[in-house]
Amino acid sequence: MTATSPSAARASLGRSPRSLSTWLDSVTARVTMYRLVLLALLVVVAAALVTSVAGLIAYEPLAILANGAAVVVATLVSNRLFALVFRVRSHTESSLVTALILLLLFQPSLTTLSVGAVALAGVIASASKYLLAVRGRHVVNPAAFAAVVISVALPAAFPGWWVGAPALLPVVLVAALVILHRTRKLPLGAVFVVVATVGVTLAGLSFGSSLSAALSAAVLSSPIVFFAGFMLTEPLTLPPRRWQQLALAVVVGVLFAVPFHFGPLYGTYELALVIGNILAFAVGQRRGVRLEFVERRRLSPSSWELSFRPRKPIRFQAGQYLELGLPHSGADTRGQRRTFSIVSPPSERDVVRFGIKTADRSSSFKTRLLALEPGERVTGTLVGGDFLLPRDESVPLLLVAGGIGITPFVSHLRDVQARSASTDAVVIYSVSTPDEAAYLDELPLGGRLRGVLLAPESPSALPAGWTYGGSGPLTADLLQSTVPDAGSRRAYVAGSPRLVSGVRRILRSSGVKRVVTDAFTGY
């Protein structure tokens, strides 16, 4: 998935009031995911210092600061050294995120053992990013792996997960919810929290605790919420499909709560996550993706298509996305990694294409991306997404896109054409102006595939299979007049979070029972 212009997204489709969800999307989209997590961790650490000064937790402020300084310095320095050895660019924000997580796992004190252990954990975590990575993808969460190693090598300094203190729960809960919302992983987090809470409660009952005491310990005195928001959802260690992620949440939740051991390894929170990471790696994209830039072509005044030649064929399904990494100097707050919907069909094995939208002040990432010369290489770290059409070709579909949100549907429709499938689909495509209708002339419509264009004015000519539906906005009445059988169709909506929210309400009110969405955050 890629980002879409807010003005284009609101131009013709259903307009909705600015809800808390869309406001949160607009605020968090201004920074990269790494920076958002880093800011959230800094807030948690600040809360820890405040509660420490107030005597609400059992750790001294000076101990927290000393352990924090040790792990930050050790992690940053070791990461720089490993980056030099492996001849790659170091990622400072990623290192800081790892360091702060380790700070919140290892119990802080002013002893040499405590300070040394957390600093050593930072070095081990940095090493794992380079030594336990397969072609650009982490096999395990670096902080969790370091915690496992320390718990075995230095049992006296084992991680205590003090971030689970009751006094920190309100701040941790809000921070975790923000992260889960931004990453669209609330279902994943919720499943884990429920499974882990039930498991920890049952374990407490088995040891003779009362139900209230066991439940209270699970909710107030365990790091379940922190684990769900900050560690389980680390994107480079998740499987690609939603059902796989939910299954992973169940497995890790059980391991989190139930005592177990493998030889010298005894069940711990960090070991539960590492085992889950290994299982996720087994079912995911186990190798990084190397792409060679081929060419760019303009789709509209503000959008482009970029073509790349993969070193090896990429396994993906129509409607999925690929995360691209493009290190560059002068990177802005939106970072050096972005996800883009793939517009080429899976049958095109020798090329992969992305459609992107630019703005007057595009991100440094897109500026660098558009400046690529043929032969330059970029990397892909993650192929995933669940914006997939049903396997049953007899299911009638309604595809609704705003602006550059048309990109996943381009892959869908090209795939339908390549397979000669008998899909029945109506495409509703909203643009800010007719000339911004990217891919309009290229979408393979006709027969049981037809399109409806919503734009402020009708274009001079429309390709075969398309009709002009008016200037919009999309309403239940307009939907009924253009797609009378909308209620019997399965709907797919792609665009900005605000667009998706508004269109989903209209579809629900029109009797559409199944709505699948792909909200494009960031720009």
Quick recap:
With about 525 residues, the protein is of the alpha/beta class.
Task: Report what the structure shows.
The structure is a single chain. This protein has helices at residues 6-10, 20-28, 33-53, 61-86, 92-105, 112-131, 142-153, 169-182, 186-206, 211-220, 224-231, 242-257, 269-283, 364-370, 407-419, 476-482, 497-509; strands spanning 133-134, 137-138, 261-262, 265-266, 289-300, 303-310, 321-325, 337-341, 352-357, 377-384, 397-402, 425-430, 449-454, 466-470, 490-495, 515-519. It is globular and about 75 Å long. With 523 residues, the protein is of the alpha/beta class. Helix 4 packs parallel to helix 6. Strand 11 (397-402), helix 15 and strand 12 form a beta-alpha-beta unit. It has a 6-stranded antiparallel β-sheet, with helices on one face. It has a 6-stranded parallel β-sheet with strand order 14-13-12-11-15-16. A two-stranded antiparallel sheet has the order 1-2.
